[in-house]
Amino acid sequence: MHKSVIVVATAVCIVSYSSCTCPNTFNNALLELHYGIVYKGHNTTFNGCVRGNSDITRIVLRTPTMNIFKGTFSNLTVLDYLALDNANLHVIEAQFAENLPKLRTFSASMNQIREIGYNVLNNLPLKNIYLSINTISEIANGAFSGMDLVYLHLNNNELHSINSNWFLNTTIKGLYLSSNHIELLWTETFSGIIGMETLDLGRNKIHYIDCDTFSTQRSLESLFMKGNSLLNLDFDIGSNLQVLDVSFNMIFSTSLERMTNVEAIIILPNPWVCKCLEKLVNESKLLNIKIMQRVAERTQERLNAPICVVADTTCGNNVAPVNTVHREYFRRVHYAKIIRYWVQWRSYPHDFENRNITFKRNWIQCFK
Ligand SMILES: *[C@@H]1O[C@H](CO)[C@@H](O)[C@H](O)[C@H]1NC(C)=O
Ligand SMILES: *[C@@H]1O[C@H](CO)[C@@H](O)[C@H](O)[C@H]1NC(C)=O
Ligand SMILES: *[C@@H]1O[C@H](CO)[C@@H](O)[C@H](O)[C@H]1NC(C)=O
Ligand SMILES: *[C@@H]1O[C@H](CO)[C@@H](O)[C@H](O)[C@H]1NC(C)=O
Ligand SMILES: *[C@@H]1O[C@H](CO)[C@@H](O)[C@H](O)[C@H]1NC(C)=O
């Protein structure tokens, strides 16, 4: 009988703290804890907080838990890794974690988190943040301010725009924002970010990019924008960009004049006007830019995209051709999540000239 009383009492705090008054956070959640230098795990259940411990290096939450309240994790002097993935999390309160001087990785992917507030993460010394596959649609001003990050993963969420105020004096090497609903990029969108090397904006709805959006990102090496709605490449890119992926967009005619330092552009498939693609290929040779294409791992007809779809005899003016061929193209050619793609170098002009581009008005033929 006394035993059960003791169990309840110790369940309030992982490490009994004489004056511990944790909010009731978890309902007998299971935590996998890893202690100290000798890497050994053990599981424990608790209802309250994890506080004042100098041995725990990793915490993995194993039980679905709706809310993580303020003060849940604090004064854990060697904690390096905190994972709350796939835990049915809806809310992470500001200051849920405090005084974790060694915390480098926070992961809360595959939850139902809708919002990242101020002082949820920006008060922690993190390097890596994984928030993929949630329902995040709101991020507070300053939510990542002053941080020095290697990876920030926000892909597969419900973001409709990027607010430049999320990042103020923020260092991020790799920013992953694919599979959201972002439409527009402005000059100031990334202006609070320093040292960005990789930016993934794939599978959004981007149809407009301000000319200077990327020009101040001097470290940017890889920019992935596959599966958006871009009509052209009418924007500047940082001087260091090596790879630009704009496959699966709506490009039918564009110039490389703003892309002069890029090494390779993945620009196929797109619904090209054949003559405009030919012009681009000529331009790419002059500028020494590689033209590449994405191809599906398993060739299925719907992914065996034509190299160009409008067989006009000139590369005429910049009115997007909308006709039955185009509608058929977009019905069949899209970037599918479940299919694996790789990037293939097309050696022009050989491949290009081998194709019977005068026949492209007939969709079924040009699909081969
Ligand atoms: C902790 O519990 C989880 C889930 O029941 C289990 O997979 C894991 O092996 C346990 N870890 C230890 C160290 O007992
Ligand atoms: C954390 O440690 C500081 C300094 O030892 C102490 O003042 C504070 O009360 C502790 N906080 C919690 C929540 O345990
Ligand atoms: C930016 O952050 C660095 C360290 O991360 C800091 O030294 C510097 O003072 C900050 N600058 C501003 C303007 O906040
Ligand atoms: C591309 O270059 C080839 C060879 O110089 C030339 O015959 C062709 O007319 C050019 N095409 C376009 C569209 O400029
Ligand atoms: C190109 O297509 C046209 C129309 O079907 C055909 O008459 C012609 O022989 C084809 N040319 C080549 C080189 O395959």
UniProtKB/TrEMBL annotation:
Task: Write out the entry's keywords from A to Z.
Answer: Signal
Give GO cellular component annotations, separated by semicolons.
extracellular matrix; extracellular space
* Keyword Signal recorded: yes
Signal peptide start-end: 1-20
A Pfam family the protein falls into = LRR_8
Q: Which InterPro entries match?
A: Dev_Immune_Receptor, Leu-rich_rpt, LRR_5, LRR_dom_sf
Keyword Signal listed? The answer is yes
Q: Entry's PANTHER family?
A: FISH-LIPS, ISOFORM E, SLIT RELATED LEUCINE-RICH REPEAT NEURONAL PROTEIN
Protein name as annotated = BspA type Leucine rich repeat region (6 copies)
Q: To which species is this protein native?
A: Popillia japonica
